[in-house]
């Protein structure tokens, strides 16, 4: 009975995911660069904890920050974790500003634990998102007093289909491995408009590739949790379809149409992550440090260069009494800070971001949980040509748990 | 254990879905510097425009349902002379045996077309044809020629009133009686026996006329040979009519260009370049003059850079200020055709939506010069992509080129002080 309900929810979530894929998932002009901005998608409690999670277990829902954590799902538990987020972005350039909102689906994960020996998970989530439209850029028609208007729009992004496996080595050590298949389409459409005609260049860039990552979690002196992750560098192969057409003298004509044209591969860098967390009674303190070695990929973007990216994050959570009869005493309160140097340097400025987050873990029944978080992030700067963004993100994530593998003879 | 949460979750999922459907706004702030776009757009007016006049050897004039009759002298185009030739037949060959002819006349019904001065008196000479109207193909041409009797059957002077009804020309009684009695007495019983009596008529303008070219209808309702007759045996003397109407016709149109630059155009393949005709070029419906337009340097456009395309291409042509007036009106629209290297029609210029038309500019240029705006992008794109390369050139033709005599005179770039020019908007996108 419960399983069929799961399936209904699953079907609804899948259809939602399918719909979300056709939509732009962000509206940040910074998504012009590379393969878009890193997706804000999070599972479990991490979004409220400043995006820390390398050393955390799966008690607050599926933890995608470290594959080793899958073995820490409760014994014989089956988890369905899915969520969505809404972003309100406030953009400023110089003293101009505007706002945009987007809503997006963030993830769907299925995870289970088998007898506490190993845990596995299958996740589908956006990895990067692209969504920008630069409208009404005016330029002079050389040799005349007239102007033409350029409109540029981009959408799409990469998705990640990911399989995690975590295994218990001994009481203190868990190891994990993940395999990700990254795939997706990034569409850019550029049109230039004169008074009576336009030229439109539409590019669809397809990328795909695999990435493998390792994870380790170690419990030191029953109190200190250490975590380590390593994502190997990889290459995303790309191809593009291009259609160029023009509208002149009231008629549209296709000038060029190519499909499957090779484009430069995109290199994802080596990523190292370190995490530490410790419980002080009901207070959890956690810290992560991640480094992505972008400069070793030797990639360039039209406007900026790729530089090594450092991400520092801190988090704290507190529950009054997890075993209390009172609901509000069981609520998990969270707070986090995050500083991300970004991987792009434009005119000697790093496009970095600062974020602060608060969150709640609301118990649902005995095993399930709703995770809600709000974060405010400041990204970029208004200096020179750059854009400053204030990103308000509301994240809602539901983690449903049930016992599936329990059999009477093992009781 | 999931009972309560299940409904909550369903609700939440639906809620997320609804939110997902909300549209997002567009970003307007990020500037051009933010993008890597390097598209350039250029406006170029340096491609030369070469005009020349050619003359079609012949054009068909037997299908456009108009008789063109008249003569006038044009300063630039010479003496224009149009005459109609037609063959007639009745709808039935029966007349009452007692019928007696009273009179006969030719009624020419105006069809409202005229060109030049209708206030001047014109002459109509009606002659009997001595040759039968025969043709090897199905058409007759402006150059077709058939013999007719030297002495006209009738001559009429009139002042044309094209918006009124018709012109009536009385024909000799003996001419009418021969036909009338032939039909009444069953000597003329079909078209063949009628043609033996009357091969046809031609309506010629007066030799010294300098007035207008007038259009008359070819329909049996408007233009016909009418016999007025009565029946003497009847008590009441009533007047009856019997009509013979046109079944085959054409207009002979020519012009005497002696002493004018067009004099050299005796062959369709000859090009009279504008510098050899006072920096002007000519178009005249009916007689077959047309301006051939070429852009000799247009293929150099690829030198601007690879990965470019023309977004707009407009040819502006200035009209000679003395070449139009209220009585010599201009066509609002012209159709674009191409000519091959022998100056024969190649094709009509069209794009995926419609045929391409040039239009009379609504704004007048400096010094009240009137211009035609000719969208030539489809022609130029075709030229740039053609393989093998051809000598195809552009011409502009009014819709009623075969049944009018309207002229259009272009000033070339030099004479127009470069009002006649080609302006190209070119996009470089790679």
Count of DSSP H/I helices of chain B: 4
Q: H/E element string of chain A?
A: HEEEEEEEEEEEEEEHEEEEEE
Tally of alpha and pi helices of chain A? 2
The major β-sheet of chain A equals: 14 strands, antiparallel, barrel
Question: Could you explain the architecture of this structure?
Answer:
The complex is a heterodimer of chains A (411) and B (430). Chain A is mainly beta. Helix content of chain A is 6%, strand content 62%. Chain A is built from two helices and 20 strands. The longest helix of chain A is centred in the N-terminal third of the chain and has 20 residues, at 2-21. Chain B is mainly beta. Chain B has four helices and 23 strands. In chain B, a hairpin with a 5-residue loop joins strand 17 and strand 18. Classes of the chains: A mainly beta (411), B mainly beta (430). At the A-B interface, helix 1, strand 2, strand 3, strand 4 and strand 5 of A face helix 1, strand 1, strand 16 and helix 4 of B.
How are the secondary structure elements laid out?
The complex is a heterodimer of chains A (411) and B (430).
Chain A: H1 2-21, E1 37-38, E2 77-93, E3 96-114, E4 118-140, E5 147-168, E6 173-193, E7 198-220, E8 224-231, E9 234-248, E10 251-268, E11 271-280, E12 283-292, E13 305-306, E14 309-319, H2 327-330, E15 332-340, E16 344-346, E17 349-350, E18 353-364, E19 368-380, E20 388-403
Antiparallel strand pairs in A: 1-4, 2-3, 2-20, 3-4, 4-5, 5-6, 6-7, 7-8, 7-9, 8-11, 9-10, 11-12, 12-14, 13-16, 14-15, 15-18, 16-17, 18-19, 19-20
Chain B: H1 3-21, E1 40-44, E2 50-55, E3 66-74, E4 78-89, E5 100-116, E6 121-128, E7 154-159, E8 166-171, H2 173-184, H3 191-197, E9 201-205, E10 212-217, E11 224-230, E12 239-256, E13 272-273, E14 280-284, E15 289-294, E16 308-319, E17 333-339, E18 345-348, E19 357-360, E20 371-375, H4 377-385, E21 393-397, E22 407-411, E23 421-428
Antiparallel strand pairs in B: 1-23, 2-13, 2-15, 3-4, 3-10, 4-9, 4-12, 5-8, 5-10, 5-11, 6-7, 6-9, 11-12, 14-22, 15-21, 16-20, 16-22, 16-23, 17-18, 17-19, 17-21, 19-20
């Amino acid at each position: 009975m419960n399983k069929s309900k799961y399936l209904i929810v699953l079907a609804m979530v899948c259809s939602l995911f399918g719909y979300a894929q056709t939509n732009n998932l962000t509206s940040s002009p910074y998504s012009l660069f590379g393969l878009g901005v890193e997706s804000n998608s999070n599972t479990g409690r991490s979004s409220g904890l400043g995006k820390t999670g390398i050393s955390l277990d799966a008690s607050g829902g599926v933890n995608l920050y470290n594959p080793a954590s899958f073995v820490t799902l409760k014994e014989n538990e089956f988890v369905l974790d899915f969520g969505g987020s809404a972003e309100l972005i406030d953009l400023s350039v110089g003293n101009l500003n505007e706002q945009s909102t987007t809503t997006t689906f963030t993830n769907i994960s299925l995870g289970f634990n088998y007898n506490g020996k190993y845990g596995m998970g299958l996740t589908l989530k956006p990895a990067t998102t692209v969504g920008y439209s630069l409208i009404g850029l005016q330029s002079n028609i050389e040799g005349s007093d007239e102007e033409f208007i350029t409109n540029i729009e981009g959408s799409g992004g990469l998705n990640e289909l990911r399989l995690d496996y975590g295994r218990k080595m001994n009481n203190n050590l868990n190891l994990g491995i993940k395999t990700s298949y990254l795939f997706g389409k990034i569409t850019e459409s550029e049109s230039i408009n004169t008074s009576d005609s336009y030229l439109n260049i539409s590019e669809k860039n397809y990328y795909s590739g695999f990435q493998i990552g390792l994870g380790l979690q170690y419990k030191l002196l029953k109190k200190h949790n250490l975590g380590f992750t390593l994502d190997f560098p990889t290459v995303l192969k790309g191809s593009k379809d291009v259609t160029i057409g023009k509208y002149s003298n009231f008629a549209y004509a296709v000038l060029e149409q190519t499909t499957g044209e090779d484009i430069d591969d995109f290199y994802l860098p080596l990523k190292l992550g370190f995490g530490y967390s410790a419980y002080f009674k009901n207070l959890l303190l956690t810290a992560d440090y991640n480094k992505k070695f972008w400069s070793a990929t030797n990639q360039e973007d039209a406007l900026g260069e790729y530089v090594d990216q450092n991400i520092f994050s801190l988090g704290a959570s507190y529950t009054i009494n997890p075993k209390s009869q009172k609901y509000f005493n069981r609520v998990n309160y969270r707070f986090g800070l995050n500083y991300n140097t970004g991987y792009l340097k434009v005119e000697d400025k790093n496009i970095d971001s600062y974020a602060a987050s608060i969150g709640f873990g609301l118990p649902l029944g005995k095993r399930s949980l709703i995770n809600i978080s709000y974060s405010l992030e400041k990204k970029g700067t208004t200096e020179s040509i750059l854009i400053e963004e204030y990103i308000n993100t509301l994240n809602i994530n539901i983690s449903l748990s049930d016992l599936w593998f329990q059999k009477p003879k093992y009781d | 254990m999931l009972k309560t949460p299940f409904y909550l979750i369903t609700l939440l999922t639906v809620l997320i879905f609804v939110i997902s459907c909300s549209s997002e706004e567009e970003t307007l702030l990020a500037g051009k510097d933010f993008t890597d776009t390097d598209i350039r757009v250029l406006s170029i007016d340096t491609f030369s425009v070469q005009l020349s006049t050619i003359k079609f050897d012949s054009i068909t004039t037997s299908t456009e349902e108009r008789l063109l009759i008249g003569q006038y002298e044009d300063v630039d185009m010479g003496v224009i002379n149009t005459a109609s030739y037609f063959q007639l037949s009745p709808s039935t060959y029966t007349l009452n045996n007692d019928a007696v002819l009273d009179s006969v006349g030719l009624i020419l019904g105006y069809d409202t077309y005229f060109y030049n001065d209708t206030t001047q008196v014109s002459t109509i000479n009606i002659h009997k044809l001595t040759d039968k109207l025969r043709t090897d193909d199905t058409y007759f041409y402006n150059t077709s020629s058939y013999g007719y009797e030297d002495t006209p059957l009738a001559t009429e002077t009139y002042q044309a009133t094209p918006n009124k009804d018709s012109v009536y020309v009385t024909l000799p009684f003996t001419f009418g009686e021969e036909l009338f009695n032939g039909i009444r007495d069953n000597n003329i019983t079909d078209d063949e026996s009628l043609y033996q009596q009357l091969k046809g008529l031609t309506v010629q303008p007066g030799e010294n006329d300098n007035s207008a070219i007038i259009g008359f209808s070819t329909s049996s309702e408007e233009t016909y040979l009418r016999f007025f007759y009565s029946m003497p045996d009847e008590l009441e003397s009533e007047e009856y009519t019997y009509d013979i109407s046109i079944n085959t016709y054409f207009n002979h149109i020519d012009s005497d260009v002696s002493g004018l630059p067009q004099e050299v155009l005796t062959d369709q393949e000859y090009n009279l370049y504008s510098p050899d005709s006072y920096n002007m070029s000519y178009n005249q419906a009916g007689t077959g003059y047309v301006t051939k337009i070429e852009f000799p340097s247009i293929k150099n456009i690829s030198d601007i850079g690879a990965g470019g395309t023309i977004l707009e291409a407009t040819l502006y042509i200035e009209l000679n200020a003395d070449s139009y007036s209220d009585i010599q009106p201009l066509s609002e629209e012209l159709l674009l055709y191409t000519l091959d290297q022998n100056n024969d029609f190649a094709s009509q210029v069209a794009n995926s939506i419609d045929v391409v038309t040039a239009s009379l500019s609504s704004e007048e240029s400096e010094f009240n010069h009137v211009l035609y705006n000719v969208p030539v992008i489809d022609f130029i794109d075709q030229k740039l992509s053609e393989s093998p390369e051809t000598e195809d050139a552009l011409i502009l033709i009014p819709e009623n080129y075969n049944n009018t005599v309207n002229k259009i005179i272009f000033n070339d770039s030099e004479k127009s002080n470069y009002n006649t020019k080609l302006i190209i908007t070119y996009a470089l996108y790679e």
